[in-house]
């Protein structure tokens, strides 16, 4: 399957008219791509809303995807609602992080699949809150003390929003303090379920960091960024938070994709903020490569490391490649614990191979890759 | 004639091309087309079948006889799915 064209990105990000006139065969290609990206439901909603005619076989498959996404999201939400009610009875609570807390921004729940539900536990109350969740019937996943399941619900427990407790050196690049998120949380009603969610500024920074961490692999994160940028009441305030949390560059990278690759407009204050922080040549080159390689991944840690200065950058990369044993066992879930020492040379081999692959891709790509497609306002 | 009482606890949500009802009792999801969604919303407001048919006539420009037939058929399906109580 070939990588998506910018026209397809733009269709998803609000301009489905770009797809008018495609033939049935081309639509099947669009369908495969949208399904692989997890955005078929969103594409269906866009096309219906804006009257874009879709050939019948593709329309039916898009509609089925939209419906199954909506159904699953409602089921997950209902299960989560029961868990939150149970937690409140135990005197405990959590903050629900994006993506699920973004549902109120979406026109309907079929837009976007929600997989794990990320929740932030109260500082200093990890054990008690986790125990309360287990008492409510959530079962831990082997080797993942922070993953709990009940029915269709998978809860991913966070001690801090960016999961710096798993890779501690990540904190050298970026850190959103859990106390700050708790202090500034607000109440939201998501499809009838009341929950605590981060303030919109934290939601945006979290989403930008998440997209970089996972090398922009899912297009839907850009849709989230697009929705959230329109919600920010005070860009100066956001800029201060981004700088304080070390997420300026992550936010800049996400907005750069929206403007330059997808041709989507960003609010005027965001545009000014971006212009005051131009990409450095190395960033421009790596970012262009990361966008081009979205489906292959591998660039997340490299981009993240650009925010770390000096020797700490190498410490970050070393800990990412060779995390502590409990985390490494999660990376290799089938490896017996007694064979853990073998995982380190295996990891070294993988790291060297991946570095060589990424270097080769960079050397084969023209230096202007990150500058393509300037557009939007 | 009454349409029936909407069962408590159901989650109803409008979608771009209709609506869906999530029934937490058995975790099932019911998809509704535009016409069925219009009738369900009439049921939620406690409307009679005649009033529901009038909403269909107004919103979809169908003749009253056909609208009445559609409402009867849709209400029967809601009742069969235990979404409406007598």
Could you walk me through the main structural features you see in this protein, from its secondary elements to its overall organization?
The complex is a heterodimer of chains A (377) and B (86). Chain A has 377 residues and is α+β, with helices and mostly antiparallel strands. Chain A has helices at 6-12, 24-37, 40-49, 56-89, 126-135, 178-183, 200-213, 220-229, 235-245, 248-261, 268-275, 281-292, 300-305, 311-321, 325-331, 340-364; strands spanning 95-96, 117-120, 139-141, 144-150, 153-158, 186-190, 193-197. In chain A, a hairpin with a 2-residue loop joins strand 3 and strand 4. In chain A, helix 2 packs parallel to helix 4. Chain A is globular, with a radius of gyration of 21 Å. Residues 368-377 of chain A have low confidence and may be disordered. Chain B is α+β, with helices and mostly antiparallel strands. Chain B has a three-stranded antiparallel sheet. In chain B, helix 1 (34-44) packs across helix 2 (49-60). The radius of gyration of chain B is 12 Å and the shape is globular. In chain B, 30% of the residues are buried. The A-B interface holds A 44-45, 48-49, 63, 66-67, 70-71, 74-75, 78, 107-110, 151, 191-192 and B 11, 13-17, 20, 22, 24, 27, 29, 31.
Unreliable stretches of chain B: none
Helix content of chain A: 40-55%
Biggest sheet descriptor of chain B? 3 strands, antiparallel
Structural class of the helix and strand makeup of chain B?
alpha+beta
What keyword list fits this structure?
heterodimer; A: 377 residues; alpha+beta; five-stranded mixed beta sheet; two-stranded antiparallel sheet; 16 helices; B: 86 residues; three-stranded antiparallel beta sheet; 5 strands; 23% strand
Task: Provide the fold topology.
The complex is a heterodimer of chains A (377) and B (86).
Chain A: H1 6-12, H2 24-37, H3 40-49, H4 56-89, E1 95-96, E2 117-120, H5 126-135, E3 139-141, E4 144-150, E5 153-158, H6 178-183, E6 186-190, E7 193-197, H7 200-213, H8 220-229, H9 235-245, H10 248-261, H11 268-275, H12 281-292, H13 300-305, H14 311-321, H15 325-331, H16 340-364
Parallel strand pairs in A: 2-5
Antiparallel strand pairs in A: 1-2, 3-4, 4-5, 6-7
Helix pairs in contact in A: 2-4, 3-4, 7-8, 7-10
Chain B: E1 5-6, E2 11-15, E3 18-23, E4 28-32, H1 34-44, H2 49-60, H3 64-80, E5 84-85
Antiparallel strand pairs in B: 1-5, 2-3, 3-4
Helix pairs in contact in B: 1-2, 1-3, 2-3
């Amino acid at each position: 399957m070939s990588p998506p064209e910018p026209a397809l990105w733009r269709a998803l990000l609000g301009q489905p008219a770009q797809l008018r006139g495609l033939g049935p065969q081309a639509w099947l290609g669009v369908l495969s791509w949208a399904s692989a990206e997890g955005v078929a439901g969103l594409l269906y909603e866009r096309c219906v809303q804006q009257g874009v005619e879709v050939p019948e076989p593709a329309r039916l498959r898009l509609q089925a995807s939209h419906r199954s996404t909506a159904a699953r999201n409602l089921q997950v939400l209902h299960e989560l609602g029961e868990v939150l009610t149970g937690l409140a009875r135990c005197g405990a609570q959590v903050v629900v992080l994006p993506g699920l807390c973004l549902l109120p921004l979406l026109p309907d729940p079929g837009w976007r699949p929600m997989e794990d539900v990320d929740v932030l536990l109260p500082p200093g109350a990890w054990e008690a809150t986790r125990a309360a969740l287990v008492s409510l019937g959530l079962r831990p996943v082997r080797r993942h003390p922070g993953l709990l399941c009940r029915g269709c619900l998978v809860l991913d427990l966070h001690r801090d929003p960016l999961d710096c407790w798993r890779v501690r050196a990540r904190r050298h690049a970026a850190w959103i303090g859990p106390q700050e998120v708790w202090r500034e949380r607000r109440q939201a009603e998501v499809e009838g379920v009341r929950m605590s969610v981060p303030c919109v500024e934290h939601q945006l920074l979290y989403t930008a960091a998440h997209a970089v961490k996972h090398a922009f692999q899912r297009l839907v994160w850009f849709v989230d960024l697009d929705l959230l940028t329109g919600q920010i009441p005070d860009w100066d305030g956001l800029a201060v938070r981004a700088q304080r949390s070390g997420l300026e560059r992550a936010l800049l990278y996400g907005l750069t994709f929206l403007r330059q690759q997808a041709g989507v407009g960003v609010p005027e204050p965001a545009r000014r903020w971006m212009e005051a922080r131009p990409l450095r040549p190395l960033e421009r080159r790596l970012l262009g490569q990361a966008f081009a390689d979205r489906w292959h991944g591998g660039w997340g840690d490299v981009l993240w490391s650009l925010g770390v200065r000096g020797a700490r950058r190498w410490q970050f990369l070393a800990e990412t490649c060779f995390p502590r044993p409990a985390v490494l066992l999660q990376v290799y879930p089938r490896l017996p614990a007694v064979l853990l020492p073998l995982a380190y040379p295996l990891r070294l081999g993988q790291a060297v191979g991946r570095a060589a692959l990424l270097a080769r891709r960079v050397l084969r790509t023209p230096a202007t890759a990150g500058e393509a497609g300037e557009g939007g306002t | 004639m009454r349409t029936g009482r909407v069962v408590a606890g159901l989650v109803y949500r409008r979608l771009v091309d209709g609506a869906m009802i999530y029934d937490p009792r058995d975790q099932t999801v019911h998809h509704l087309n535009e016409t069925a969604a219009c009738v369900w919303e009439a049921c939620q407001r406690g409307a009679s079948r005649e009033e529901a048919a009038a909403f269909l006539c107004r919103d979809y420009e169908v003749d009253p006889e056909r609208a009445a037939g559609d409402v009867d058929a849709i209400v029967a399906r809601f009742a069969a799915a235990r979404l409406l109580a007598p």
